[in-house]
Design a protein that fits this description.
This protein is of the alpha/beta class and 419 residues long. It contains 17 helices and 15 strands. 51% of the residues are buried. It binds nicotinamide-adenine-dinucleotide (NAD).
Length: 419
C-alpha cells in the first residue's frame, strides 16, 4: 500500500486522538453500525480530499465499514494532523497522502496520488479533486459515479462549472444541508477560529476591537463568539442584507478601510479574494493581528503586504511579523493567511463534525445508489436525510421535541381557516 505521511511513529498518538473524537460523534457511529451490516458502499473506490483530522479519520472508518476502498489527501497544506495521518496509514491501512506544511508541489502530488487510486466517487473540501478531474485528469471521468462537496467555496466553484455546462458528473453539495452549515460553519468556525487565534497569539480578546470581514454563516459564528468573550466587534460586508442583519445583531458595520484604523484583531471569512488589501494595511495600528478562516489563502493579500514590508520574521509559531517600510508599524499575520482554525488549532470540535460527516457518509451512500440516474449538476442534500441527521443528533443529546397532532397537520396544510 502506498502512502506519504510525516512519521509512522506518531501513529499511537493519532489513534488516541481518533478514539477521543469518536466519543463526540454518536450520529456517525450509528451510521457506521448500519453500514457494517448493510455494506452500501461495497466495492466502491472513494477518493477523498479533506482536512486530515481525527474527525476525518472517523469518517474514513465509516466509509470502510460500508465496504468502500478509500484514499485520502489533505485539502489544505497546513490542516493535516500528522499523528492522525500516521494512524490512518498504519492502523487503518488507508492510503493517505498528507503532511502538515507540505509545499504546493507536494500538495498536488498528493492529490494526484488519490486520483491514481481511480476513485468512482470523490469527496472534496474545496473542489480541488473535481477541478483536477475536469482539467489534467479528464480521461478518468468516464469511470465516475459522482462526488460530494463539503464547503461553501467548493460549492461555489462547482456551481460555476455547472452553470457553464461543463460539470461532467453529479455532485451533492453537503454544505447546503442545514445540519452542516448552521452548525459547522457557524458554531464550528466560530469557536475553532477563536481557538486558533488564541493558540497562535495568547492575546486577550476582552476589550479588544475585533473586525470580522463577512457576515455569512462563518462570520456570524466568529462575531458572536468574539463578542461573548468581551470584544468590541466590527463587521464588514458587501451584501446589504447581511450588513443590516449585523447592525440589528448589535455590531458596528463599516467599510474595511475605516475598520482598519480601529481594529486590534482582523479575521476574514468571506470566500472572496483580497478582502484585506493595501488601503487597509496602510491604516492599521501598530501590532495589528490579521488572519483568515475562509477556505483559500487569498482573502488577505499577502503579496501586497510583503511588498509594503521592509522586514518579515517569524516571531512565534504561526505568527509572521511584517514591518512596514512606511512608519515601521508591525502587522502580524497568523497561519500564513490559511484557515487559522486548522493551521494553529485542531479545526472544528467533533460534536459539530459529527453532523457534517454524517451528511458526507449519507451523501456518498445516496450517490453510490443513484449516481447513474442523476443529471450532471450540483444537487442539494436530500431534505429527508438532513432531517434524519437532526433527529439522530437530538436523540444523542437526550433532547425530545413535540410532534404535530393530526389537527395541527391539517391546519398547517389548509387555506380555509382565517380570522
Ligand atoms: N474555517 C473553516 O473551517 C470553514 C468552515 C466552513 C466554511 N469555511 C469557508 O469560509 C468561507 C465563508 O463561508 P460561509 O459559509 O460563511 O459563506 P457565506 O456565503 O455564508 O458568507 C460569506 C459572506 O462574505 C461576504 N463577503 C464577500 N465578499 C466580501 C468582502 N469583500 N468584504 C466583506 N464581506 C464579503 C458575503 O456577502 C457573505 O455574506 C468560505 O470560503 C467557506 O468555504 C471555512
Amino acid at each position: 500500500m502506498k502512502y506519504d505521511v510525516k512519521d509512522l511513529g506518531l501513529a499511537r498518538e493519532g489513534a488516541l486522538r481518533i478514539e477521543w473524537a469518536a466519543r463526540n460523534m454518536p450520529v456517525l457511529r450509528l451510521i457506521r453500525d448500519r453500514f457494517q451490516r448493510q455494506r452500501p458502499l461495497r466495492g466502491i473506490r472513494i477518493g477523498c480530499c479533506l482536512h486530515v483530522t481525527s474527525e476525518t479519520a472517523n469518517l474514513m472508518e465509516t466509509l470502510k465499514a460500508g465496504g468502500a476502498a478509500v484514499s485520502l489527501c489533505a485539502s489544505n497544506p497546513l490542516s493535516t494532523q500528522d499523528d492522525v495521518a500516521a494512524s490512518l496509514a498504519k492502523d487503518l491501512k488507508i492510503p493517505v497522502f498528507a503532511i502538515k506544511g507540505e509545499d504546493t508541489k507536494t500538495y498536488y502530488d498528493h492529490l494526484n496520488a488519490v486520483l491514481d487510486f481511480k476513485p468512482r466517487l470523490t469527496m472534496d473540501d474545496g473542489a480541488d479533486l473535481v477541478s483536477a478531474l475536469h482539467s489534467a485528469r479528464s480521461a478518468q471521468i468516464k469511470h465516475m459515479l459522482g462526488g460530494t462537496e463539503e464547503t461553501t467555496t467548493g460549492v461555489i466553484r462547482l456551481r460555476s462549472l455547472a452553470d457553464q455546462g461543463k460539470l461532467l458528473f453529479p455532485v451533492i453539495a453537503v454544505n447546503d444541508a442545514c445540519t452542516k452549515h448552521y452548525f459547522d460553519n457557524r458554531y464550528g468556525t466560530g469557536q475553532s477560529s477563536i481557538d486558533g487565534i488564541l493558540r497562535a497569539t495568547n492575546m486577550l480578546i476582552a476589550g479588544s476591537t475585533f473586525v470580522v470581514c463577512g457576515y455569512g454563516q462563518c462570520g456570524r459564528g466568529v462575531a458572536s463568539r468574539a463578542q461573548g468573550m468581551g470584544a468590541h466587534v466590527i463587521v464588514t460586508e458587501v451584501d446589504p442584507l447581511k450588513a443590516l442583519e449585523a447592525v440589528m445583531d448589535g455590531y458596528r458595520v463599516m467599510p474595511i478601510v475605516k475598520a482598519a484604523a480601529e481594529g486590534d484583531i482582523f479575521i476574514t471569512v468571506t470566500g472572496d479574494a483580497a478582502v484585506i488589501d493595501q488601503a487597509a494595511f496602510e491604516k492599521m495600528k501598530d501590532g495589528a493581528i490579521v488572519c483568515n478562516s475562509g477556505h483559500f489563502d487569498v482573502e488577505v493579500n499577502l503579496q501586497t503586504l510583503r511588498r509594503l514590508a521592509s522586514k518579515v520574521r517569524r516571531i512565534r509559531p504561526f505568527v509572521q511579523e511584517y514591518t512596514l517600510r512606511a512608519g515601521g508599524r508591525k502587522i502580524n499575520v497568523l497561519g500564513e493567511g490559511r484557515l487559522i482554525n486548522l493551521a494553529a488549532a485542531e479545526g472544528h470540535p467533533s460534536m459539530v463534525m459529527d453532523m457534517s460527516f454524517a451528511n458526507q457518509a449519507l451523501a456518498s451512500e445516496f450517490m453510490a445508489e443513484h449516481g447513474r440516474e442523476l443529471e450532471k449538476i450540483v444537487y442539494s442534500m436530500p431534505a429527508e436525510l438532513d432531517q434524519e441527521i437532526a433527529r439522530l443528533k437530538l436523540k444523542s443529546l437526550g433532547v425530545r421535541i413535540d410532534t404535530l397532532t393530526a389537527e395541527q397537520k391539517k391546519y398547517l396544510t389548509s387555506w380555509e381557516a382565517g380570522t
